[in-house]
Write a structure and sequence with these properties.
mainly alpha; 2 domains; 6 helices; about 0% strand; transmembrane; DUF1232 domain-containing protein
């Protein structure tokens, strides 16, 4: 039993060390699309935490956002994470769909205030802002 616990602790330590290494390497990426993609999931997790606590967010949007957060944290994936490039794709798609749904339910300035990353990335994800009444769309 003791050797099993030691093996589990070593495995957990390796996972945490690999996460730290990936974070360090992601910070060294040059500005651009790769850096935006590397920061996407951590930015989404921060946004989920902030929106979950915001009283201006309707309950159904909070449910969608929390489900997306649980999906990202879950070890069960449709596409295994160890596959290069496409591994995190299911997480990104689920979070993007949840944020687009929340974008229709929550005022855009609330979403932008909750987003810690580059606002252009969130704007790209959400699409064009809805025009006010009485004005035509572009």
């Amino acid at each position: 039993m003791r050797s099993w616990l030691i093996g589990l602790a070593i495995a957990a330590g390796c996972v945490v060390a690999s996460w730290a290494l990936l974070l360090l390497l992601a910070r060294r990426l040059p500005p651009g699309v790769l850096r935006d993609l590397a920061a996407f999931i951590p930015d989404c997790v921060t946004t989920v935490r902030r929106l979950r606590k915001d009283p201006r967010v309707p309950r159904r949007a909070k449910v969608a956002i929390v489900v997306a957060g649980i999906w990202v944290a879950s070890p069960i994936d449709l596409i295994p994470e160890f596959l290069p490039v496409i591994g995190p794709l299911d997480d990104i798609v689920v979070v993007a769909l949840a944020l687009r749904y929340a974008g229709r339910q929550v005022p855009r300035e609330v979403l932008l205030a909750a987003w810690p990353g580059d606002p252009r990335l969130l704007e790209r994800l959400l699409g064009k802002a809805e025009k006010t009444e009485g004005r035509g769309s572009d």
